[in-house]
C-alpha cells in the first residue's frame, strides 16, 4: 500500500493464537504490511488444544506447507472409539477421507504456532510479530477503531485491526455478546503408557465420562465435572479421584504413580458463547474472540483457522490495494456464523442432553449403548460419515486470497 503517515501498518492483529497467526500469514502473503501482537513472551500455554484436523492441513497443503508441517513431531489419530460400560466400539473412521492428510495430527499448539511463525517470517517480508506486547485499549476516532494502545503507552495505527486474542479479548466489551451457558468444566490429566496407538477414545461408566487422546507415550485425558465443581472433587481426595478414573477407564495404567496428588491435574473452565456482531468500523473479531467453543469435539483450533482463511479471502486483496474494507467486514461474519451456530448448537445439545444429566446424577448411562453407536460399530462403512464431518467440518474454507510474492 502507499505509505501513509496516519498508519503504522496495513493490518494489526491482536493475539498470536491459531486465528491470529494464520491471518497474519495470509494477509502478508497478499502483500499487506501486517503486525501481530502477542502479549506473552512465547507460545507455551497450558490448556491449548493440540488437534490439527484434516481441514486445517488442507489449508497448509494449498499453501505448499503441509509436507514441512508433517516433518515436525506429531502423533496421528485416524479413528474414534468409545468404551460404553466396558464394551469397546469403533464409531468414526477418517482413513477413507479424500484429503491430503486423512487423519488428525496431534501436535502441541505451541509447536503449530512456531511453525506458522517460521513459515510467515521466512516467506513474507511484510509479516511482523512482536512478543510481550499486550494491548490494553482500542483507539477510536468517532465510531471507528483506528489502532491499539499497548501497556507501555505506545500507540499503533492501522486501517484494520483484527481481534484474535481469545475469549478474554477486550473486543468483547465493545461488541454484543450472547452467553449460551456451559454446565461443565474439565480436568486435564496426562497418564503415561507404554504402547502407542492412533485412536481418540471416549469412555462412559455410570455417571462418569472421560475422553482419552492417544499422544504416543501417554494418554491426554479429559475428565468431565460439573461447572464450578473442582473444589468439591479435590475435597474428596486424590484416592477417590483415581477411583473415579479407574471406574470410567479401567485400562488406564499406573494411576497411583501418575497421580500421587493433584499437582498434575489442570482445570479447564469451559465457556460457550459468541458475539452477535463480530465487527465495527475498523475492527473485526475472529476465532475465540468471536466465539468461545466447548472442548466437545476438539474443534476450536480448526474453526479459528477457518475464520482466518475466510477473513483473508474477503479482505486481504482489497486491503492490499489500499481500498477501504469496512463495508466488507460483515461478509466475514455472514459466512462464518453458519458453522459457528451449527457447531455450538451441537455442543450445547451434548451439554444439556448428555453431560448435564450425567454429572448431576440424574442419568446413569447403564445398559446397552445407544442404537446409533451400535450401528456405527457394526457397519464399518457408516463410520465414514462422522469421519467426513470430523475431517471437513461445516462450510470448509479454501485459500482464495491473492499471493503477492514471497522472499
User: Biggest β-sheet: count, sense, barrel?
Assistant: 7 strands, mixed
Helix percent reads 25-40%
- Compute the separation of the termini in Å: 18 Å
Low-confidence stretches: none
Radius of gyration: 22 Å
User: What CATH architecture of the largest domain would you give?
Assistant: 3-Layer(bba) Sandwich
Indicate the structural class.
Answer: alpha+beta
Q: What is the CATH C level class of the largest domain, in words?
A: Alpha Beta
Tally of distinct domains = 2
Largest sheet: spatial strand order: 6-5-15-16-17-14-18
Total number of helical segments? 11
| CATH topology category name of the largest domain | FAD/NAD(P)-binding domain
Mean pLDDT: 90
The total beta strand count reads 22
Beta-sheet strand percentage?
Answer: 25-35%
Shape estimate: globular
Relevant CATH superfamily of the largest domain: FAD/NAD(P)-binding domain
What does this structure look like?
- There is one protein chain.
- With 407 residues, the chain is an alpha+beta fold.
- Helix 1 runs parallel beside helix 8 and helix 8 runs antiparallel to helix 9.
- A 7-stranded mixed β-sheet has the order 6-5-15-16-17-14-18. The protein has a 6-stranded mixed β-sheet with strand order 8-2-1-12-21-20. The protein has a 3-stranded antiparallel β-sheet with strand order 3-7-4.
- The two termini are 18 Å apart.
- A hairpin with a 3-residue loop joins strand 16 and strand 17.
- It has 2 domains: 210 residues, FAD/NAD(P)-binding domain (3-Layer(bba) Sandwich); 85 residues.
- The chain is built from 11 helices and 22 strands.
